[in-house]
Amino acid sequence: MEDPSRLDIQHRIWLLSLEGLIPPEIETEVSRHMEQTKGGAILDVGCGSAIWSAQMAEKFPSAQVVAVDITEPSQRSFPSNFSFKSHNLANGLPSEFEAGFDIIHCRAVLQHVPDPQILVDSMAKCLKPGGFLFLVDVEVDSTFDENRKRLEPFIYDPALSVETNLENSRGLSWTSGWLHMLGLSTRSSKYKAPPSMIQQSESLNELMAKVCWFPIGWEDKALEHGRELGELSAEVVEGLFKLSRDSFKKVEGVPSEIKDALIERGRQEFRERNAYLSGKNEVIVIVEMGGKNQISFWIAEERRVT
Ligand SMILES: C[S@@+](CC[C@H](N)C(=O)[O-])C[C@H]1O[C@@H](n2cnc3c(N)ncnc32)[C@H](O)[C@@H]1O
Asked: Membrane-spanning regions, if any (predicted)?
């Protein structure tokens, strides 16, 4: 089970990075849509501690907010327009949810289900026409240096001895290697980054995408909340290092000396170097036929609007 306090810290990181529960780039569109529906319905898929859904229920008091997870959230009091449904997402959402929601939010969940495309397609079916789907995920393949350049991960080569693997590691990142193995231990082999899953879906079009950068344990003065983001990200990463010894047991074919080295050297490296984690946030909307690309923009370090 996920640690609710870590999920709440992660929520704060997302709030600071995306500048709100709904990114400001899309806020006007979403608010206009919610006003037109005179209430509306919001769904949080794999809600965890349900902090996002509880705050959305407060932000949109006339909307009905439904949160779904396999585990019921604890430690929180919920507004009266909030309800929880226990459900296993492995085969998608319950059929009674179809065409029922104006906003669907799915954050840090796709990496945990056996076939994420099934869940993406099912969420698409549960949106009302013109509704918004928010997919939020962190890239768990590598970390990035201060210039946001990928730090190539150390990856175990089974054709070589353990000693040769360790000797050949010069120039490679142990923190990236650790993160890569964490991805292998938690993600389904069917996982793809959200943009590919959207492309494969028949009805979803991308409205906006945003890349976020999380400095791990250092103050990034270029970011508005660089210091707080650095502190919170380090807390999350330290927590994940603690969990990883158990998670790594699931990875077969990698000797325990290599797993130990990834944890110990990865932790050491992240404490000594200024590195980033990168988060990918996708906001997708279903638009009427012919309306494709009506509103379409991509936001990264450099802003481009078409
Ligand atoms: C990393 S947490 C993210 C929680 C929340 N979305 C957030 O951002 O704070 C992943 C959540 O997915 C849920 N989950 C994973 N597999 C699931 C499944 N098969 N069915 C339902 N929920 C699942 C877990 O219980 C957990 O709450």
From this structure: none
HEC readout, the chain: CCCHHHHHHHHHHHHHHHCCCCCHHHHHHHHHHHHHCCCCEEEEECCCCCHHHHHHHHHCCCCEEEEEECCCCCCCCCCCCEEEEECCHHHCCCHHHCCCEEEEEEECCHHHCCCHHHHHHHHHHHEEEEEEEEEEEECCCCCECCCCCECCECCCCCCCCHHHHHHCCCCCEHHHHHHHHHHHHHCCCCCCCHHHHHHHCCCCEEEEEEEEEEEECCCCCCCCCHHHHHHHHHHHHHHHHHHHHHHHCCCCCCCHHHHHHHHHHHHHHHHHCCEEEEEEEEEEECCCCCCCCCCCEEECCCEEEC
User: In testing the pocket of ligand 1, which one of 9, 44, 56, 70 has its CB within 8 Å of the most ligand atoms?
Assistant: 70
Distance 216 CA to ligand 1 centre (A): 23
- The whole-model pTM stands at 0.91
**Domain 4-140+190-242+278-305, what architecture?**
3-Layer(aba) Sandwich (3.40)
Average pLDDT over residues 151-157: 96
pLDDT given for residue 1 in this prediction:
58
* Domain range summary for the chain, segments of one domain joined by +: 4-140+190-242+278-305
Give nearest CA residue, ligand 1 atom 12. 46
Q: Give me ligand 1 centre to Cα 157, in Å.
A: 32
